[in-house]
Amino acid sequence: MAGSGAVDAAAAPLVERRGPDLVAIGFAAMASPCEVLLATSDLALAREIARIAAAEALRIERKFSRYRPDSVITRLNNSAGARVEVDEGKRDPLDFVLWKRAKPGEPAWDSPWGLGRPGWHIECSAMSVALLGDHFDIHGGGMDLKFPHHENEIAQTCAACGSKFVDTWMHNGFVNVNAEKMSKSLGNFFTVREVLPHLRPEVMRAFVLSSHYRGPINYSDDNLRQADASLERLYVALRDVVPTSPVVHGAATEKFKAAMDDDFNTPEALAALQALARDLNVAKGAGDGAKAAVLAAELVCLAGVVGLLGHEPEAWLRTRPAKVLGDGTTAAAEPDAAEIDALVEARMAARKARDFKESDRIRDALLARGVLLEDGPQGTSWRYR
Known about the structure:
Number of domains: 3
Order of helices and strands: EEHEEHEEHEHEEEHHEHHHHHHHEE
Radius of gyration: 29 Å
Oligomer: single chain
CATH topology of the largest domain: Rossmann fold
Strand order of the largest sheet: 3-4-5-6
CATH superfamily of the largest domain: HUPs
Strand content: 15-25%
Structural class: alpha+beta
């Protein structure tokens, strides 16, 4: 990036490269915060930078014409000092820190403004520009970072680089657990890595997709079961159907694309998949194998866009989902495939002998253990519930 001054390489931490991943170490990656500050101060387009003698930091002031978070200016001006005492070093409530002067015991680096450390926003600009360039497609983050962090990041990066910086900002909502905010202090904080041993990973993906990324998502056993059931309906629809090739895209594709083009509206996209699965079931029920094959191909193709339906239907339906009880103990083991197949054979023999009482007993016993039997023209199939 363009800067008028060089910074001692020892003052800027490096980037550790681990295979395909990049891990930023410290407050910056390759480009130092000082370079960002120097570039910002060099451009006439930037907000005026003033070193205020009485203040503890170098600040950026609202002179940058492209920095206009209008949705919050009025609120901030009206509420300045309501929660935090107004900093007399600021000329405007929207002014923010670029470089904080060193305090005893804090990490510090040398700079044209003396020892100090970067402000929170400068760190992100330095890492973004170093690793992704001064203009890239998508920048994400939590909804709580929209203002002031990302607004300030836009201001200083655009001022420093003279570029658009980011094309699309995507801010995700918060995660709740049983309708309560997830937090370590409440003891309801856990990671995806901790959850995955207890359910099939594709169920977690379906669960996340069931809520719009900008809205809150409520993690609960009931919502996970609903996601599992919704995914199971798609796999059941694909059962005993060989998709055509190449894929023929119809009305369902248009609905799916419209939903995804509408700010990644994944709940609507999943609804389009469920509607397509219903049409597929109707075609199967009517014995229209050709139409069913066309619809199945379209369903698999569209679901693949969001990472779903990546397994063979029979394999998925016969994969026993792990279950964990509320007290953390594992639920009683369901019968394995060999035992189920043997019981299905015994039931078929009972039906052939017209011993329907025994046939019903075997069916009900399997159902009680989480196995559903489905009788059809091709014989009896089974799946875990």
